[in-house]
Amino acid sequence: MGFLDHLDELRVRLFRGLLGVIVAVSICAYFSDFIVNQILIAPLLKSSPNVKLQNLVPYGQVTLYVQAILFSAIILAFPFLIYQIWQFVLPGLLPKERKAARFIVLFVSVCFFAGVSFGYFVVIPFSLNFFANFGSPNIENNIAVTDYASFFLGMIFTTGLIFELPFVVYLLSNIGLLTPPFMRHYRKYAIVAIVVLAAILTPSTDALTMMLFALPMIVLYEISIFISAAVQKRRERAEREEELEPTTSLTK
Predict the structure, then answer these.
(1) What is the C-alpha separation between 25 and 185, in angstroms, rounded?
(2) Which segment, 74-78, 140-144, 163-167, is predicted with the most confidence on average?
(3) Cross-strand bridge partners of residue 142
(4) Cα(92)–Cα(186) distance, rounded to whole angstroms?
(5) SS3 140
(6) What is the pLDDT of residues 203-222, one digit of tens each?
(7) What is the pTM (predicted TM-score) of this model?
(8) Burial degree of 145 (CB within 10 A; 0-12, 13-18, 19+)
């Protein structure tokens, strides 16, 4: 494909991705009341029933609904968007590379949804419970609805991106920047860094809450070592096959 052909292919993929998001926005707009009340606000009511949401500006609830619909649509359309990116990259890969990465869309999507689920069912409830019970009982906790939405959606996407660690390791291992010996050698440093990161990201000083945040990241790191090892074995096997091909051709 020439340069203009690549641009045309990019245009097609961007258009299809945008079309997918528009369809997802339409679906989420139809279920907007359910998304706002049962998904967005429900964790606050369950973990912090005494906390009240306040609308401080005339357009506050409009902003809330728009944010909820757009972010929900992006989450819903995420696999389709990744598929479009993959289809754009696919023609530039060798047959062996295509075979090795044939489940890449499923892999990336599962990692992202696992992170979103972890953020929704673990991080959000613990964070809200901490904020609701912290400080003086003489101070009433009233939260601006737009600030709550920003906090909620930001946390969800942060955990979703954190859970893409196995995919990042897979890519870096494929190009030879990461190896299992390197990751095993620096495991203890990585664990310390993860615990520090968990202490920073977790709004609670409770050790249990911090470990609940750190443990999945440690597990992800260990899983990433196995992924890197599998990639390295596949690369070594492919290199041996390439070395044997000239010999086989000469023999024939």
Answers:
(1) 46
(2) 74-78
(3) 52
(4) 34
(5) coil
(6) 555 566 677 778 888 888 88
(7) 0.81
(8) buried
